[in-house]
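Private note to self, pasted from the team thread so I don't lose it. Backbone tokens:
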């Protein structure tokens, strides 16, 4: 299709390593499914459907992929199994392209007199704090001045962990400690950002999904208070999901997108799971762009998501 291989060699190698467990899982299953077969027939397609579903691509997305491949098989009765990986790559990318979701290509932010505010949401344990630290590091290295806001005030460890990551990334942080009003922390952070001409502000929020109404009310309050300082804040609401939880990540994404206006997604811990297929299902079904993927523990192990490179790495 001529759409693959945009990453640098080093980044491509990092992506391949990060997806190694998922690739091994998918490839071994596909290899077994085509043993003794010379062409793609109904049995191969049935097996492929099961493989994609059990790789956490999701039922709806899997059925759409299989339908596309069936149409190609009907046009070419002698489609060989040796072509299956290339066909998969092409059809999955085509499916994702049709969603017409804008993809980020770098860490550039829109030009504005006000700081660019990113509000981070997601349940505890998905890698929220780590992702904030990595984002802060990347934005700083892209030449921006960055300020963090520790508005997850319900866990004592949350503020401490974010402070550690702010030190690793070399960026300042605004915090009021455990038990403080999250909206107050966000307000003070934005006031400080404006006073010091910061370019990017990243606001952490509490990782709870116990009740969608309470969650929505809390996030709405934080937004409303921030907009007293910067009228269009936050310009981005980034939902962090743990890819290793597979379909649970998809369910969390559905609940959060129903509770608040999520504008972008980050999928973490892809290097530690064989469930990386969930990225495809989430990209296809939620109509919210996946912006970042986490493929390791090092501070630089966060990549801008590129659908072409991801699919190419997964099925190559």
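Design output:
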């Amino acid at each position: 299709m001529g759409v693959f291989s945009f990453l640098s060699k080093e980044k491509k190698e990092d992506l391949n390593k990060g997806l190694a467990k998922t690739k091994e899982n998918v490839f071994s299953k596909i290899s077994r499914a085509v043993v003794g077969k010379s062409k793609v027939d109904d049995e191969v397609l049935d097996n492929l459907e099961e493989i994609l579903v059990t790789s956490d691509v999701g039922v709806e997305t899997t059925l759409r992929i299989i339908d596309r491949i069936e149409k190609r098989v009907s046009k070419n009765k002698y489609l060989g199994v040796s072509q299956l990986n290339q066909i998969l790559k092409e059809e999955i990318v085509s499916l994702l392209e049709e969603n017409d979701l804008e993809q980020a290509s770098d860490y550039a932010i829109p030009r504005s007199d006000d700081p660019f505010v990113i509000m981070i949401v997601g349940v505890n344990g998905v890698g929220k704090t780590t992702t904030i630290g990595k984002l802060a590091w990347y934005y700083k290295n892209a030449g921006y001045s960055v300020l963090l806001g520790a508005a997850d005030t319900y866990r004592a460890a949350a503020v401490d962990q974010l402070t550690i990551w702010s030190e690793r990334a070399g960026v300042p942080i605004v915090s009021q400690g455990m038990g403080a009003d999250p909206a107050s922390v966000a307000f003070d952070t934005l006031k400080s950002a404006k006073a010091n001409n910061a370019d990017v502000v990243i606001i952490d929020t509490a990782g709870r999904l116990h009740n969608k109404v309470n969650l929505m009310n809390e996030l709405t309050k934080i937004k409303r208070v921030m907009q007293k300082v910067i009228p269009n804040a936050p310009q981005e609401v980034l939902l962090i999901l743990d890819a290793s939880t597979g379909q649970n990540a998809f369910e969390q994404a559905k609940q959060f997108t129903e509770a608040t206006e999520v504008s972008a997604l980050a999928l973490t811990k892809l290097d530690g799971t064989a469930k990386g297929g969930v990225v495809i299902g989430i990209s296809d079904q939620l109509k919210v762009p996946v912006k970042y993927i986490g493929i390791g523990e090092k501070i630089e192990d966060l990549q801008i998501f590129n659908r072409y490179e991801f699919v190419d790495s997964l099925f190559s």
